[in-house]
Amino acid sequence: MYHNKIRIPFEQQLGHELFETLEGDILIDIMEECKVESLSFDYHQILQGHSFKASPVLAPGLFGVFQEVKETLEFDETLDFYINNSPELNAFALASNTPEKPHIINLNSGLVHMLNDRELRFVVGHEIGHIISRNANITSLINFVFPEGRHIPALLQHKINLWGKLSELTADRYGFIACNDVAACISGFFKITCGLNSDRVEFNYEAYFDENERILAMFRETGAGNALSHPINPIRIKAIELFASSELFKNLSKEEEPPDDEHLNQAITELTDALMILSNTPLDLYRKQFIATGGLIMAGMDEQMNEDETEAILNTLSGFTIFPMEYLQSVLHSGKVTELFEEAIQKILEINPGDRYSMLNMLINIAHSDHRITKPEIAFLYNIGTKTMGMSRKEIAQFIAENVQKSFNPQLYGGG
User: Fold this and answer.
1) Which residues, given as ranges, of the chain have pLDDT below 50?
2) How far is CA 339 from CA 46, 344, 346, 357, in A?
3) Which end of the chain is less packed: N or C, by CB atoms within 10 Å?
């Protein structure tokens, strides 16, 4: 099976970038070397002591489903399946970094009770997809560098979040291949979402699909839910539908490598564009514009923009866009930095006049991010504050003073 063709191209690109950024080639080896066998957090030992390992003797039906999925996905590496006593509708995969130990897939008992065999094939195929794509390894790397998600830099947080969503969509393709039934995929999503099976609710595929399209249209406008770790179900369902009807899927069963499916790639790109929206409100769009243009103007006061100033601008922008560097460059290359800066201030003050204080504070932060405060920068702050933001010189001076006392870190060497 041509696994690189199955995976979403942008997911592969982002995963590679994260692996390189986190020094994966070095740290994966260190993660393995630093383990002390007697003290290692060995999931195999934990699961064997507290979970049920599926076997052809004790659970022939379930084991048969699991083996069928492995065969369908042409996955021949050693893999252990465990059932954990938990009502939570969840499953996870743990990739092994050494050939001696098998990979692990753990299914909660609540999930096994809730889903029929076709729906279960989708879930198991999805989890195996994480292992095949090696995305489970990248997840382990992220968790190693940032235990429990602590101290992740703002510039990296949104990229990790986006990659995580795209990796789920890639895994969903493997889940679909495993069950080969769009309706089963969608009914599985439905059951997991509401926690109810067909004894309580009459699932209507067409009605649920129509509702999904309505929610998807709303999501594309607002980006609501993008802070979650997984893409919302309407995105996942639409992505499966697109893959199921694609030429790529039709050609996977052929012996020769299938050609790139540009039509599918374009449709997925348009669909996942919604995952890159942190906020789509007019106020936040102008805030983003102000941060980029104001940052460029302040950093250019001394005719050079150093790394500290760039980082300060990008960190502030990262609250509004997943790719702050690309956005900053697009503003710079527009040749209209001053015009866009003035437009942003005007529009922000029209929508929310109270933003004048946070805008001035941001400009002050950029001014001393290079560990220096210059007279042209102070003159600019007074000018923009009095003429555009309607503030008095005393008020501006008080803002500057408070900001400096809180966060100014003066240059201690190489001064000029």
Assistant:
1) 36-41, 416
2) 61, 9, 11, 21
3) C
Cα–Cα distance, 246 to 253 (Å, whole number): 13
Q: Where are the domains of the chain?
A: 3-276, 282-407
**Helix, strand, coil fractions of the chain, as percent rounded to 5:** 65, 5, 30
Residue 94, classed as helix, strand or coil, is: strand
CB 363 within 8 A of CB 384: yes
The model's pLDDT over 134-172, given as tens digits with 9 standing for 90+, comes to 998 899 899 899 988 778 887 788 889 999 999 999 999
Would you call 82 helix, strand, or coil by DSSP? strand
Q: Which two tokens stand for residue 394?
A: 């005393």
In this prediction, residue 216 carries a pLDDT of 80
| pLDDT of 229 | 56
Contacts for 380-386: CB closer than 8 Å, 24+ residues apart: 380/297, 380/298, 380/301, 384/345, 384/360, 385/360
CB-CB neighbours of 50 under 10 Å: 10
